[in-house]
Every structure is written in structure tokens, then in C-alpha cells.
Amino acid sequence: MNILEKITQNKAAFSKSEKKVAEIILANPQTAIHSSIATLAKMSDVSEPTVNRFCRRLDTKGFPDFKLHLAQSLANGTPYVNRHVDENDSPDEYTNKIFESTMASLEVARQSIDVNVVNRVVDLLTQAQKISFFGLGASASVAHDALNKFFRFNVPVVYFEDILMQRMSCMNCSAGDVVVLISHTGRTKSLVEIAQISRMNDATVVGITSADSPLAQECSYVLSLEVPEDTDMYMPMASRIAQLTLIDVLATGFTLRRGNKFRENLKRVKDTLRGSRYEKRDG
Amino acid sequence: MNILEKITQNKAAFSKSEKKVAEIILANPQTAIHSSIATLAKMSDVSEPTVNRFCRRLDTKGFPDFKLHLAQSLANGTPYVNRHVDENDSPDEYTNKIFESTMASLEVARQSIDVNVVNRVVDLLTQAQKISFFGLGASASVAHDALNKFFRFNVPVVYFEDILMQRMSCMNCSAGDVVVLISHTGRTKSLVEIAQISRMNDATVVGITSADSPLAQECSYVLSLEVPEDTDMYMPMASRIAQLTLIDVLATGFTLRRGNKFRENLKRVKDTLRGSRYEKRDG
DNA sequence: AGGAAAATGTAATTTTTTGACATTTTTTAT
DNA sequence: ATAAAAAATGTCAAAAAATTACATTTTCCT
Questions:
Q1: Would the CB atoms of B276 and A188 count as touching at under 8 Å?
Q2: Which of A67, A240, A260 sits opposite B68 (nearest CB)?
Q3: What is the distance between the alpha carbons of residues B263 and B271, in angstroms, rounded to a whole number?
């Protein structure tokens, strides 16, 4: 855990002098990492060993080790994971909190990915006769995005928002078809049914969902994404982003597997789009 | 700049002994930050002052300062911004690269946002009679996502993929309506036209696009997002994610502005969804 | 090959951190 | 309310680490 958060959390457990140190550090962490223990002790109006004890209480080896941890917390892009948006936040505050917590969630998600499954799924996708992407609610737009990405590969790819269309499409599946189902919770009934139908029709079902969910149990392969609790109570936020990034990973794996010749094809698609665009002026 | 990258880049300019040090550090940076200058000197088979000189050559104050920088480079979530996917990457490598560069892009995007415009747009949205979200291609799924988010707020919200429907919808706009147009490049002709049509019909047009683009010029307000070059040559990746996160910011600003009573309404929407889900078992 | 310049190492100095122990403050039990 | 115990904090000295000054070696150029 981020040591700044840790200091904030443990603040109550600190002794009087340790609190002084904590406050000085929290008030100006950038200064703290560039100070010696003597300087910091003087700033906090506390003795040097007290600062040292403070560091050890936070499970660091000593002052230098503590500074290392602090430096890491302050590093660019290392976000406060659990900074939830608060009712009284200013636009500046909630904007930063949302970006930071999104980045933090991506980091957690990244670590939770099983690369072997990714590799296996990329294999499947490159060999698929037809690829379908389905999701509902917030995950529908992820499926939509996947359609857009894979469509450029010039492979038969299908996406429906309508659950009846989804069902019909799956009933017509056959061996060699891959159905990718996206759901954060993995508890959406109709999507679980889609998984069952698809498998009955010999399609391979890939779930982008949380492990141990009902949906996960019905899938041939599960790309499980661990995403921290969403920042906003009522809307999926980070989970979507993690799913999208995973789609990017799959799409990238796909192009890499297909090799160079294939990438030229992609370029062609891109060039075709040019007609619908305003050209960029020089200078 | 990331000090690890810096070491790699300057490697040619190092002297023989300094190269030894560089290699030991690059080979095992995690060990390096936990070693004393004496240990590191011994590992590199070099004297202590040489290590010190090495640190100074990299524009640090000395060895401890160097360790601080190194620690920051190694911090969780601090990505190598310019790590592009390479043809020969293993699944593990490209997965990590994509996640890391996505996080890096979010960080850049975050810094480029003008919070005042965000605030102003949130104002507009809360007071809008009708909100429309339009995008094409990769941005279509972003618009789709925005629909999903704002639909929960129980406000009149519109989204079309079809450009004719988009046009017709905009022709029926009136004062008080807000049209949000999403495009990474801001050079999609039909979207620029949509902006013009909307403004002619007294709607307020908000662009989520890059500054100085043709689209930006037609908008009443521009939420410009600076996103580094996409990792993959042929597909928009990071830009989409940044757009989505910005949508999250707007949605969050929206709920905050509307206050508590409004949030209860949101909860109700969420509860309604429960019937379509499998309940989570305890334990 | 010889000398200047650069690189590296040695050893001493200084700075910084840590440990041992004394003193003060706080807590608890009567 | 007070004495004893425990916890917290500080003082000072020892240890560790980093840095400096200077000596030696290596490299490069003529």
C-alpha cells in the first residue's frame, strides 16, 4: 500500500510525537524525501530517534528505507488508490480523483491478469471462424468497442445489443466460433444463458468477467479482471476501462500473431477512412 | 524523465567503470535501491567514489538522491511512457506494455484538462433539456457509454450511431439542448457538420476532441484532451480510454451538482436492475 | 615513447543514521 | 489520589554511509 495512505490511516495509532512527524510529512512530502533525519526531526520538533521509530512503525527498515517508500508514493502516476469522490469536492478535486483512481484500478487489473489465458484466447481468436462480442448495460459499450477494433481485422465479427438477437446469433453458432461475453459482475442472467446456448452449439465461450461468478462457470475460458471497488457507488467506472484495455491487449495479440502481411491490411482500412476526414494542414 | 530510461540513453556516454555500474543497476534495480554505495560498488567491481560520480553524471545530488530517483522510476504504476509494442513481444510483454502506456496516457490526459471548462460543461449538462452524445467509429462506443451513464440520471438523453439519425436529431434541437460530440482527431467531416447544424438550431455544442481541430472550431465549448501517440499504429487506444474517463468526470460532476436527493434516484435505478441478476451468495 | 588529460582508486573526513540507556510522561490499579 | 508499571521521548555515543581530497593509474594524442 501507498505509504502516504498508510500514514493517514494509522494516524490514530500514532503517539503524540509521531503524529507531529506524520503531519509534517503529510504537509510536505516532497520536502521530506529530500531532508535528513536531523532536519525532519527539527521541523517536527522531535528528536531524531523518534523519527526513526516513526519510520519503523510503518514497517520500513529505517529512515532511508522510509524515504524510498515515500518517494515511490510521490512518483508520477502512483495514485492514491482509495480516494473516493466526496460530496464537497471541487471540480478540480473530483477530476483528479477520478483519473487517479482509474489509473490505480488499471494497475490492479493488470496484475490480476493471467497471461497464459490471454495467450490462449488470442490463439482462439486468430483461428475463429466468427467472433461475437456481447455485453449488456455498461459492458455493451465495451462489446461495441471490441466490434470496432476487430472489424478492422477483416474477420467476421458480430455484436448485438438486443438480447434476442444475441440469443439467435448464438443458436446459429458452430464449432470454431468464439463468443466473447463481457460482464463486470458476471451475474447478468441473460448473459449466462447466452453462454450456455453458445456452448451447446459448440462455440468456444470466453468470459471477460470476475472469477467465480455464475458467468465464469459457464465459460470455456475466463479472462478474469480484478478491479477495485468502483469509485462511484452507482455506476461502473473503472471496470469498463479495465475491460477495454484488455480488449486492446487481445486486439494487439491478434495483430502480432497474424504478422506483417496482415498489418498492411489494417493500414488499408485506415487509408480508406481518410476520405471521410478533413486533412490536417501543415505547419 | 524516468531515470532508468536516462541510464539506458546515456549509456554510450559513460566511462568504462560507469558502464559497469549502469549494467548492475539496470540488471537489478530493485536490489540497487536497497543497497548502500559500498555494496553497489562491490557488486559493480568499482570503487565507491565511482558510483558516486556515476550518480552525479545523471544530474542527481549524490547517491542517496539517485536512489530516490530510482525508487520513483520503479514505483508501481510509473510506466515507461514510450514503450511501444514490438513485433517480437511475448504475451506477457505486450500485455504489460499496453496497460502501462494506457496509464501513462491517462496521466498526460489528466494534466491537459481545463477544469474550468469541465465545470462549465457540468453546469450546462445539469440544466440541459436534452443531452445528445454522438461519435463515430471508435468514439461511437464512447458515446454509447455516455448514453448508458447519463440514462441512469433520468434525464432525456439521446445517442445514435447512424449519421442520418444524428443529423435529424440535431435539426430538431432547440435552445437548452446540449450536444456532446466525441472525436479524437476532430476531423471527421460528418461530425463537424453535426456541430454546425446543432448550433444553427440554438443547441450548445460541447466537443470532446483535440484542440485546434476543425471540430473544435465549431463547438461552443471544447474539452480538449491531449493524449500521447497511440501505442498501436492503426487503432485508437488510449484516446478512447481518456475520453471515457472524462465522461466519468462529467457524470460525477453531474451527480454532485444535483445533490443528495438525486443520488437516491440513482440508487433506485440500480435496485431495479437487481431482478435481472443472480444474487451473490454469502461466504 | 612521453606527457597531458581523463578516469579510477585509496584513505581520511564528514554526515547521517542507529542503538543503548536515562529521563519524562502516561496509564493503571489500588 | 497516588504509587508502580509501562510507554514514550530524549541524550549521547557508536556505527554506518557517503563524500572529499588527493594519489595513482589508464587512456589518448602528438
A1: yes
A2: A67
A3: 13
Query: What's the pLDDT tens digit per position in A228-259?
Result: 765 555 566 788 899 999 999 999 889 888 86
What is the model's pLDDT at position A264? Answer: 64
Residue range A255-269: mean pLDDT, rounded: 69
Specify the nucleotide whose C1' lies closest to residue B56 (CA): D19
CB contact under 8 A, A76 and B74: no
Does B162 contact chain A (CB < 8 Å)?
no
**Which of chain A's residues have a Cβ under 8 Å away from the Cβ of B34?**
65, 68
CB B166 within 8 A of CB B179: no
Please write the tens of the pLDDT for every residue from B208-227.
Answer: 998 889 999 999 999 998 77
> Where on strand D do bases come within 7 A of a protein Cβ?
7-12, 16-21, 27
Domains of chain A (ranges; CATH) run 3-74 (1.10.10.10), 114-274 (3.40.50.10490)
Whether B63 sits with its Cβ under 7 A from any strand C atom: the answer reads no
Residue A148 CA, nucleotide C12 C1', distance (Å): 69
Instruction: Evaluate if the CB of B193 falls below 7 Å from strand D.
Output: no
A38 in contact with nucleic chain C (CB within 7 A): yes
- Which three cell numbers, joined as nine digits, stand for B40? 553497489
pLDDT at B95 over 80: yes
Q: What is the dihedral of CA B210, B214, B218, B219, to 10 degrees?
A: -10
CA A65 to C1' C14, whole Å: 22
Greater pLDDT, B144 or A154 = B144
Distance separating alpha carbons of residues B178 and A123, to the nearest angstrom: 44
B-facing residues of A in 178-197 (CB < 8 A) are 185, 187-190, 192
CA B122 to CA B114: how far, in whole Å? Answer: 13
Residue B179 neighbours by CB under 8 Å, 6+ apart: B131, B132, B134, B170, B173, B194, B195, B198, B203, B204, B205, B206
Mutation site for A-interface testing, chosen from B96, B99, B161, B224 by largest number of A Cβ within 10 Å: B99
Question: Do strands B177-182 and B130-135 pair parallel, antiparallel, or not at all (unpaired)?
Answer: parallel
Percent of the residues in chain A that have a pLDDT greater than 70, as a whole number: 85
CA of A136 to C1' of D8 (A): 58
Residue B236 has pLDDT above 70, yes or no: no
**Position with higher pLDDT, A153 vs B249:** B249
Contact A252 B148 (CB under 8 A): no
Please write the tens of the pLDDT for every residue from B69-92: 888 887 755 444 445 677 777 888
Distance of B2 CA from D29 C1′ (whole Å): 37
One DSSP character per residue, A173-215 reads --TTEEEEEE-SSS-BHHHHHHHHHHHHTT-EEEEEE-TTSHH
d(CA B280, CA A55): 41
Residues 6 or more apart in contact with residue B121 via CB below 8 angstroms: B206, B221, B223, B250
| pLDDT band for position B283 (cuts 50, 70, 90) | very low
pLDDT confidence bin for B125, thresholds 50/70/90 = very high
Q: Of A110-114, A245-249, B7-11, B123-127, where does mean pLDDT reach its minimum?
A: B7-11
